[in-house]
Amino acid sequence: METVAVIFGGRSAEHDVSIVTALSSIIKPLELTRKYKVEAVYVAKDGAWYWDEKLKDISLFSSGHIKDFITKSHPASVEFNGGMTLVKSSGLAGRKTSRKIDVVFPAMHGTYGEDGALMGLLDMAGIPYVGCGVSAAAVAMDKLLAKQIAMANDLSITKFLAFSKSEVEREPQKAIKEVSQGLRYPLFIKPTHLGSSIGISRVQNETELRNGLEVALHYDDRIIVEEAVSNLIEVTLPVMGNDRPVPALLEKPLTKPEDFFDFETKYMGQGKGGKKTGGKRGSQGYSEVPAKLPGDLYERAEKLGLGVYAALGCSGIARVDMLIDSQSGVVYFNEVNPLPGSLYAHNWRAAGYSNVELVEKLIGYAKDRFKERQSLATTFSTNFLQQF
Amino acid sequence: MKLKIKKMGDALGIFYKPRFIITLVYMLQNTEYEVGPYLKWFWRTQNFNNVMIRRKLDRTKVAKQLILGLYLGVAVQILAGLWLIYAGLWQNLAGGVYFGLALIFSYPVVWAHLVVVQLELGRILLINPKQKSLIARSEKIFKDHKGYRVAIAGSYGKTSMKELLLTVLSEGKKVAATPANKNVPVSHAEFAASLEGDEDILLIEYGEGKPGDVEKFVKNTHPTHGVITGLAPAHLDHYKTLEAAGKDIFSLARSVDAKHVFVNGESVAARPFIRKAYQTYTEQGALGWKVDDVKINIDGIRFVIKKGKKTLTLKSQLLGRHQIGPLTLAAALGHELGLSDEQIVAGINRTAPFEHRMQPYQLSGGWVIDDTYNGNIEGIRAGTKLLQELNAKRKVYVTPGLVDQGPETKDVHSKMGELIAASGADVVVLMKNSVTKYIEEGLKKSGYSGELRIETNPLEFYNNLGEFVAAGDIAMLQNDWPDNYA
């Protein structure tokens, strides 16, 4: 039986979301396949790694007992010995327990997890892992780079400007002037690297713009300011696969155009619009799946989503967010999420993929990509050293 | 090693916990207070912690009395043990300490067996005399009742047929029926006691279990009409052969006017017992009514019945082609008994699946058909045929197999494998047990090429069924082994 390590938590603002993704949508269905031994690897907020069966229990986290667990446990370490081996001290006379890992299933959102950092480590280890590779993950998590790549591939995006922290701090008035002259209100100000809508503001005037810049620069050293789409229909498309990606269903959050997914409404509240309706389910329960769109908008949005997935070099799984101007009928690429929260399993189920099937497919894609990469030559013999 | 010792400790620890007493009564309850199956189950069990995982004890009057009796017995034994230890220590009783300790530590095993004595004594001294008198009184009530007394017998489909007739005939008549699956003499007697006397029709379900049962039911309930729902291997541990079961079930047919006997003509095993004078019902029709234009869906069945110039368009929420025969019989009987066309149509329209019997529900965007109370090969035949007829992106079939198939076990399960293969299931999930290999043989024989999954933890699988299905799926769940078989 192969061993799959599910790595979750992490040094990211989306640490808690990652725990839910791992425990609800990955570990449980993986175990139900009966094909894999699943190891839970939790990365604490301080960056220490823990590996234990107890980490599969959500109540450890929801009750706050994770703090006691961390105090009493020894962090695990990782050996890169022609692969990857988890090692931990059992506490009994320093006896060590180890487990060789066959596949890694990263379940981390945001920085150091979803942005390519973890993928780089796993590439170095030479081990198959689920989801996008280093470059696709890094680009996807950088809103500026993602937009530039989309632009280079003739994929439609909203008009935007980018600023570095130092630029804004040095000459704030210049930045504000550039925005006022180049873009039309309302605008969105976004940190380029953060996910889950953290640090994003929607601004209507210069005063709000000033505040929005300050908020975004609190979270990131690079930001983008982009024009809001009028007559907005927000849609998102989960996609999986390597060379021949498969779309799930286009999903439309049920909300008013003036609202947007901030962290509170997305994860802490009852979903987008959930607070107002008094609903009980998470954000994903307040969506229309499949989205009912007029004319050929559905097909066009799906085509754009698949185009972005390919242009950014995504593999395994990702979710492409798009914005539609319902009057002009233009579909804009907004951003890519290389590890959708809870894998967007609700959408995949609606598309006909059960939770168990989804994780099995993702493991399959990880192995296929690894096998392909193995066949590539990365070293070759030279007589270079003999010259010295 | 540490883990093994802990597991062993847990397995032994339960013997001395109050939960053990409850577990014993639960085991008795789940074997219908039959001594043989209870003792077999007791001696087969390796860890009593795992017995009561799926369900809990139903704290009936009998269960409460048994628990009380067990606690008293255990208390007496422990006190006797303590007295022996005391006598051994302070009154020089030879071996007193050892015997005392042995008495104290042996109480779980001792009372696991003495409970049988308690049960039998209760049965002989209290229950049997009370039940005998109740049954005797009911015999007169049934005999004197002015309404039609319709007895329903068969190896399968009895409860469904009874409920179906109740639903349809109640549209225009006063109908009373034995409740749920209460179908033994004492339940018949309790039913008789609850009658008001002015009912037009009584529906009495016969739950046969051993040779001579149906004959006894007939003597007590005096049926005027008989419905025989079919014959299949069931309770063969007692009947031994299908022929013996058929003989007993058809004793109902011999005791009523032959033209008032209605037999399921689709039951192959029942055919040798069917006389010309009996009326049969099939998916083609019943009592002269012809069935036409059948449409099967996950929402139910739609069909038309015609007799002479009369045509009725019927719609039922029941699932499966096998329901057409019983529905047509209900409609035809309704007509004979004077129900209007509107009443018949409304009655059939109200027929809906009963809990755990071809009951559809949505899960994770897919459809699940819960047929877990189905426990015979004819039900499997109907379920697999339904799965074959329904449109789905992916078809999943789940079963542990059947129980009480006696010497037919191997053949029945091999046949079951063939039926599953013919259903077009993309995924077959079998709960691992003693019959799994025979189903696998049947699948192999039929060249089944889909995915086969053998589940070692049925409870976990059923609890997480939502993780396995998605939109476009239809999952058919047939039968669920009771704890004493699992």
Please name the fourth-level CATH homologous superfamily of the largest domain in chain A: ATP-grasp fold, B domain
Give start-end ranges of low-pLDDT stretches of chain B.
none
Our measurement of the CA-to-CA distance between the termini of chain A, rounded to an integer number of angstroms, reads 48 Å
Radius of gyration of chain B: 26 Å
Instruction: Please give the count of helices of chain A.
Output: 14
What is the number of strand segments of chain A?
17
The helical percent of chain B reads 40-55%
- The CATH topology of the largest domain in chain B turns out to be UDP-N-acetylmuramoyl-L-alanine:D-glutamate ligase
Number of domains of chain B: 3
Low-confidence stretches of chain A: 268-284
Strand composition percent of chain B: 15-25%
Mind explaining what this structure looks like?
The complex is a heterodimer of chains A (388) and B (486). Chain A is an alpha+beta fold. Chain A folds into three domains: 2-131, Rossmann fold (3-Layer(aba) Sandwich); 160-227, Dna Ligase, domain 1; 230-374, D-amino Acid Aminotransferase, Chain A, domain 1 (2-Layer Sandwich), CATH 3.30.470.20. Chain A contains 14 helices and 17 strands. Chain A has helices at 15-32, 58-62, 66-72, 117-125, 134-140, 143-152, 165-170, 172-182, 206-219, 263-268, 274-277, 297-311, 345-350, 355-374, and strands at residues 2-9, 36-43, 49-51, 77-79, 84-89, 96-101, 103-106, 160-164, 187-191, 201-203, 222-227, 232-241, 246-247, 252-253, 287-288, 316-325, 330-337. In chain A, the strands form five sheets. In chain A, strands 3-2-1-7 form a four-stranded mixed beta sheet, with helices on both faces. In chain A, helix 1 (15-32) links the parallel strand 1 and strand 2. The longest helix of chain A is centred in the last third of the chain and has 20 residues, at 355-374. The radius of gyration of chain A is 22 Å and the shape is globular. Chain B has 486 residues and is an alpha/beta fold. In chain B, helix 13 packs antiparallel against helix 14. The mean pLDDT of chain B is 91. Chain B has 19 helices and 16 strands. Chain B is globular and about 100 Å long. Chain B has three domains: 2-128, no CATH class; 145-350, UDP-N-acetylmuramoyl-L-alanine:D-glutamate ligase; 359-478, Mur ligase, C-terminal domain (Protein-Tyrosine Phosphatase, Chain A, Alpha-Beta Complex), CATH 3.90.190. The longest helix of chain B has 38 residues, at 107-144. In chain B, 47% of the residues lie in helices and 17% in strands. In chain B, the strands form two sheets. Chain B has a ten-stranded mixed beta sheet with strand order 2-3-1-4-5-6-7-8-9-10, sandwiched between helices. Chain B has a six-stranded mixed beta sheet with strand order 11-12-16-13-14-15, covered by helices on one side. Chains A and B meet through helix 1, helix 13 and helix 14 of A and helix 19 of B.
